[in-house]
Automatic annotation (TrEMBL), chains A, B:
<feature type="binding site">
    <location>
        <position position="131"/>
    </location>
    <ligand>
        <name>L-histidine</name>
    </ligand>
</feature>
<protein>
    <submittedName>
        <fullName>ATP phosphoribosyltransferase regulatory subunit</fullName>
    </submittedName>
</protein>
<dbReference type="InterPro" id="IPR041715">
    <property type="entry name" value="HisRS-like_core"/>
</dbReference>
<keyword id="KW-0328">Glycosyltransferase</keyword>
<feature type="binding site">
    <location>
        <begin position="83"/>
        <end position="85"/>
    </location>
    <ligand>
        <name>L-histidine</name>
    </ligand>
</feature>
<dbReference type="GO" id="GO:0006427">
    <property type="term" value="P:histidyl-tRNA aminoacylation"/>
</dbReference>
<feature type="domain" description="Class II Histidinyl-tRNA synthetase (HisRS)-like catalytic core">
    <location>
        <begin position="12"/>
        <end position="306"/>
    </location>
</feature>
<dbReference type="GO" id="GO:0005737">
    <property type="term" value="C:cytoplasm"/>
</dbReference>
<dbReference type="GO" id="GO:0016757">
    <property type="term" value="F:glycosyltransferase activity"/>
</dbReference>
<dbReference type="InterPro" id="IPR045864">
    <property type="entry name" value="aa-tRNA-synth_II/BPL/LPL"/>
</dbReference>
<keyword id="KW-0808">Transferase</keyword>
<dbReference type="Pfam" id="PF13393">
    <property type="entry name" value="tRNA-synt_His"/>
</dbReference>
<dbReference type="GO" id="GO:0004821">
    <property type="term" value="F:histidine-tRNA ligase activity"/>
</dbReference>
<dbReference type="InterPro" id="IPR004516">
    <property type="entry name" value="HisRS/HisZ"/>
</dbReference>
<feature type="binding site">
    <location>
        <position position="127"/>
    </location>
    <ligand>
        <name>L-histidine</name>
    </ligand>
</feature>
Amino acid sequence: MTDRTTDLLPEGLEDRLIQSAAAATRIERAVLDRLTAHGYDRVRPPLIEFERSLAARMDGVSRNHMFRFVDPKSLRTLALRGDITVQVGRIAATSLVEAPRPLRLAYAGQVVKIAGTALEPRRENLQLGAELIGTDSVAAACEIVELAIAALEAAGATGISVDFTMPDLVDVLADGPLPLADREAVRRELDMKDAGALTEAGGAAYLPLLFATGALPEALAELEALNKDGVLDSRIAAISQIAARVEGRARLTLDPTERHGFEYQSWFGFTLYAQGVRGELGRGGTYRIGGSGEVATGFSLYPEELVDAVKAQENIGEKVFLPLGHDEAAAEKLRAEGKRTVAALSDADDAVALGCSHRLEGSEATPL
Amino acid sequence: MTDRTTDLLPEGLEDRLIQSAAAATRIERAVLDRLTAHGYDRVRPPLIEFERSLAARMDGVSRNHMFRFVDPKSLRTLALRGDITVQVGRIAATSLVEAPRPLRLAYAGQVVKIAGTALEPRRENLQLGAELIGTDSVAAACEIVELAIAALEAAGATGISVDFTMPDLVDVLADGPLPLADREAVRRELDMKDAGALTEAGGAAYLPLLFATGALPEALAELEALNKDGVLDSRIAAISQIAARVEGRARLTLDPTERHGFEYQSWFGFTLYAQGVRGELGRGGTYRIGGSGEVATGFSLYPEELVDAVKAQENIGEKVFLPLGHDEAAAEKLRAEGKRTVAALSDADDAVALGCSHRLEGSEATPL
């Protein structure tokens, strides 16, 4: 038995079999329950939409990453969703445009992309998340970061790390005390973390950013070197406030110029990791909803790698074998107590082979 | 606020908003929990597969009903799944081919078809179900019918009806005591329930079937008129045994020659209904898995209409407003007790507008 049936399924797609399906289901429920407890209401948008509607709300960037096909009904191009966030944004801007703000929405569902990467070959993912719509304040960022950590804790993740980023930092500095001739070149060299090339690109004044990376609060202290005329006061205070809110619950780091995947974030972004889980578990931040331009703060989790990390240990529950002619009331009582039952259909049914640890004898479940 | 955003979404596709998403989530969980309790293990197959793989296991009939597109990776045609049963059959025949039988598998997920009908315009459905693989015995049919009813009860359906059908009945009679020159013509007129045309088609001997319809056991008694040489003894006994298993939990009827949607069923099929719910809620029966030919018994629920029937009354839980500077331990205690909390982010947040019925004062939730 294996989860990989590569000869049967297209590359990057897989069946989640018994243990891993149980882990995925438990994690999905635990996360949604946590979001529900914090006042987030679930919405369930469809798997497919007009391609134009999905793409318009993504500024076109991910458009080529979606499976597309023609709808014989409307003769328009449809797309299989690659991200539920854009659908939640559409709902906030249309059906729920009159709902009071801040509007708290949650979602869970499968998303698909047309191609994986060498690092992330998976083309279908479970996406779980929360969006706090109508605000991108520091208070909103505090709630969303804390909620993301609480959701991961509820899912069973341990050793959680949160890496903060400040997506508009270069703009703030370049519009203020440290003007740049070629802003894009400086951004590129900051991404490469190449001090020599950064200086050549005219970004010598930005060198301290290369050191404002790593554990908080040390990284924030390094950032003070660039805080001319207090231009970064509010940003540094905001990051400190968010960090204080979740102190002790996660390892906190700063990578102030990280841009990859934060193209839509405004002043704040973060990436989530957990011990023993390959790659990122999710990300979030502040942004403007495509189309409507309304401000929002949110996060998405992609827990597939967490599922893979825990599936071998996933507890799928104890099964009690019910022999032919068993006491049905006793069986229902076991189920009401949370036990699972497996009823014999013929004399040939083998309790142990069927994964049972107990057998109902009279009204008692006795170990096999 | 409305669930219908027809101008924004393709025909037959909709957003499930707060109340109806909560109802769908509750129903999905309740059904899966019931299946889990009865020993069914969930599997989660992908949303898309090779079209040929899905179609081969459906005998090609539903092939034109699926959205199809070319995979840039494999250059093969993929399809968006229209039915999870065929995927479960593929898993049983491949990854889980060595798992002991009977193999009990459960599933839940979205399925999509390319076109709705006038009666069922919806193109995306939630499909929930259970498959008992490796057996199509009367005992298997008893378990599956009882489980389907138990699943609907758990979902909150009331006034449940089960309509039994006997898909191979005409074959059994025609191969035995009542030979036919044109079997297909007789089947067609039985579908039309047209006594004159049935006689003209050479099926005069089959006229009693038109009366063997309606409430059990009266319909079964009518069927006895055709039970020449005891050819129907085992079938009548089987239906009676299944009926006895669920007596008092559902209204039971028989429509022995109903064929629509039972093209894959072998000796037994059934359709599920509930009071106040438009159309069918699901169906099931005995069948052979496409490709492997292994026998199986199972059912699928399509609870969208049940969701629509209950969504206005769906209880999404009481929300407690947490003012700025609230006692966080008291808030966590409320959540642990199953309450939902909504934290103020600024002085402008309005507890009543945000749907809160209570407000945390000190450590107490007081009504607003």
